[in-house]
Amino acid sequence: MASIFDRGDGTGRRWPRGQKFRLSTSGLEAVAQYQEALRACREVGGRAAFDQATGAWAASVGVQPGDGAYLEELRVSDRSMVELVELLEDCGATTDEAKAALLRLLSAKLTEPVRAPP
């Protein structure tokens, strides 16, 4: 798997350390679908309902079920990788897991880098 700091544009250039990311238009739609999946599974209740709902959502957008938590944090504000790890640390997020999740979200075009002002 490529490093999250590799821009993936074939140049070998890396993202700056403090690079922030935000939801794309598709990401806004995906997070709304994620929230709806969570509402639906609460009606049924239980871990199995949660796993089924988040698994179906993830398959529909081409990511993994746990990636929804990262989308939720990006829904609130533009975030850097370090910020995402800190925010999701209580959920057991590690730097490697956050890098992998962000790479999947970028590949699925659900997130995008925030361009620095000129």
Descriptive account of the structure:
By secondary structure, this protein is mainly alpha-helical. It has five helices and three strands, in the order βαααβααβ. The chain has a three-stranded antiparallel sheet with strand order 2-1-3. Helix 1 packs antiparallel against helix 2, helix 1 (25-44) crosses helix 3 (67-76) and helix 4 crosses helix 5 (95-107). The longest helix has 20 residues, at 25-44. It is globular, with a radius of gyration of 15 Å.
Overall number of structural domains: 1
Order of helices and strands: EHHHEHHE
Strand order of the largest sheet: 2-1-3
Mean pLDDT equals: 87
Distance between the termini: 31 Å
Uncertain runs are none
Helix content: 55-70%
> What proportion strand?
5-15%
Q: Would you report the number of β strands?
A: 3
Keywords:
mainly alpha; 5 helices; globular
Short structural description:
This protein is mainly alpha-helical and about 120 residues long. The protein is built from five helices and three strands, in the order E-H-H-H-E-H-H-E.
